[in-house]
């Protein structure tokens, strides 16, 4: 079934930057979709509209049966627990340990009394430990984020996104700052998360070869418009 559907989504920044023009596509539950395109194509804008970090200028974004564009604050919070974000620069809190970053990432948690003081219940702590171990970070659990390698930081980012139990991960250039070896580890984890847990992945990439290797489907974006939408095989045939 369809999890995400974009209908005529456009985004304009200020007066003259049209970052997205009439974008239409839908993503099925469990699909692994890569969005490829050159720098400035609108990939990051697209992801940020989907989880409402920014507002689309027009169009409709349906996620899990709801129009994302019209949600109020309380429903927005709920939406963001269903959509995990992964960033190019990880967005970890440097002075906190790996596990604190995972627990700290829980939306809404920081606003509670316990959260402010970094007190977590045992069940949450165990879930965080399981996630970190599953991502191969068993030795890094109590290391500070700023002492981890890039690939390790990104795995903490993945654990932080997963602890909320999301239906979908939005990954904005998750491997753009990593060497080939770490990139492979991250992509393998994302692929595994989608194929074995069934979490839908929407991944911005600028490396076509990586998109071809990992995706069920590839969406090509240029100058704010979708210029390709098909399987890796279809993309190879076209080029
Ligand atoms: P990509 O992720 O594919 O590199 P972006 O979505 O970051 O593309 O950018 C698409 C276009 O929108 C670019 O022309 C960029 O300069 C512009 N843009 C992105 N963010 C902003 C912003 N906050 N304000 C104004 N223009 C922006
Ligand atoms: P602090 O408690 O130190 O002020 P912040 O809330 O400023 O921490 O978070 C630091 C960084 O981590 C920011 O870049 C923020 O965007 C990012 N961050 C915090 N929580 C999340 C989350 N749930 N998902 C993604 N990034 C997050």
UniProtKB/TrEMBL annotation:
InterPro entries: AAA+_ATPase, ABC_transporter-like_ATP-bd, ABC_transporter-like_CS, ABC_transpr_PhnC, MetN_ABC_transporter-like, P-loop_NTPase. This is Phosphonate ABC transporter ATPase. It comes from Neobacillus massiliamazoniensis. Keywords: ATP-binding, Cell membrane, Membrane, Nucleotide-binding, Phosphonate transport, Translocase, Transport. Residues 4-239 form the ABC transporter domain. GO terms for cellular component: membrane. One of its GO terms (molecular function) is ABC-type phosphonate transporter activity.
